[in-house]
């Protein structure tokens, strides 16, 4: 005997509910989360039960820490470079606008790997020799040695190269965020007696930062993955550590499984942070 329908419920609503309740629930179920959880449990069990995987993780751990440090340092520098270039791009002074546009167009037109190698092996030695020579001319040999050591460090060159490359992309994000603020707010700030710099600092930038937080977070995840390019200049981050271990043990399968899993964990954690940041920005805080 068919089950009686609730009294007072519209017939069309009952039919829609009966026909779509289960499909909607299954369609919206986060299957990708379930798959990742199952894969993570399988990977954790494999690591716990295998001495080889545990030894691989122990060897790669320093590379993980260096990857995180490289990403954070390069991104912090890229934020500064991007903000300066973005403001110059909005400047009415032709020299500032031209320099910023030239930097953005050139850097965005060159592959990041090529840019990183060029800065590491061409620009860094030239700058190092010029600054060290100037220090020696001033009678400061100790300063010359310090400059040479800092500039020729593989890690420092990787940080500068990645920051210089990503700064061009962040500059365009800043520019778009600033231009999204209504022009009337700038005029209102100027009518209150604020200078252009004060209006930008106290009125425009605080609102623009909220707008650009999600894309800035996405670029942070991209930089985390692109930090693997630092292996091209022998920085012992995660990818380079995996390459060294694979060459030493001839166990490429286990080594690169672990490398890929560690990158996946870092990017997933970063992606969750970006989603939280997006929710915070949408909430209007």
Low-pLDDT regions: none
Mean pLDDT: 86
Strand content: under 5%
If classified by CATH, what would the architecture be?
Orthogonal Bundle
Task: Give structural notes.
This protein is mainly α. The chain has one domain: MetI-like fold, CATH 1.10.3720.10. Helices cover 83% and strands 0% of the residues. The chain has helices at 11-27, 31-49, 51-89, 94-108, 112-137, 141-151, 154-179, 183-191, 196-226, 238-249, 252-282. Helix 3 packs antiparallel against helix 4 (94-108). The mean pLDDT is 86.
SSE diagram, text form:
Elements: H1 11-27, H2 31-49, H3 51-89, H4 94-108, H5 112-137, H6 141-151, H7 154-179, H8 183-191, H9 196-226, H10 238-249, H11 252-282
Helix pairs in contact: 2-3, 3-4, 3-7, 3-10, 3-11, 4-7, 5-6, 5-7, 7-9, 8-9, 9-11, 10-11
Task: Describe the structure in brief.
The chain has 285 residues and is mainly α. Helices cover 83% and strands 0% of the residues.
Which structural traits does this protein have?
285 residues, mainly alpha, 11 helices, flat
């Amino acid at each position: 005997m068919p089950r009686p329908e609730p009294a007072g419920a519209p017939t069309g609503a009952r039919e829609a509910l009966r026909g779509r309740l289960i499909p909607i629930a299954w369609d919206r179920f986060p299957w990708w989360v379930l798959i990742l959880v199952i894969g993570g449990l399988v990977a954790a069990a494999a690591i716990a039960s295998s001495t080889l995987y545990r030894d691989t993780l122990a060897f790669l751990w320093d590379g993980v820490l260096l990857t995180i440090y490289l990403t954070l340092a390069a991104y912090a520098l890229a934020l500064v470079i991007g903000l300066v270039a973005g403001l110059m791009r909005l400047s009415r002074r032709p020299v500032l606008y031209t320099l910023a546009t030239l930097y953005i167009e050139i850097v965005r037109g060159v592959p990041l790997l090529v840019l990183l190698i060029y800065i590491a092996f061409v620009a860094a030695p030239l700058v190092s020799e010029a600054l060290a020579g100037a220090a020696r001319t001033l009678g400061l040999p100790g300063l010359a040695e310090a400059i040479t050591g800092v500039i020729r460090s593989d890690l420092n060159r990787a940080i500068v190269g990645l920051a210089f490359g990503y700064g061009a992309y962040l500059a365009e994000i800043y520019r778009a965020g600033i231009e999204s603020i209504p022009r009337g707010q700038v005029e209102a700030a100027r009518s209150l007696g604020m200078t252009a710099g004060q209006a930008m600092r106290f009125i425009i930038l605080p609102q623009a930062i909220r707008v650009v937080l999600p894309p800035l977070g996405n670029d942070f995840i991209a930089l985390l993955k692109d930090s693997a390019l630092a292996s091209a200049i022998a920085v012992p981050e995660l990818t380079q550590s995996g390459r060294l271990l694979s060459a030493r043990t001839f166990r490429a399968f286990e080594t690169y499984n672990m490398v890929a899993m560690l990158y996946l964990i870092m990017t997933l954690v970063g992606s969750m942070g970006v989603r939280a940041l997006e929710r915070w920005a949408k909430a209007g805080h």
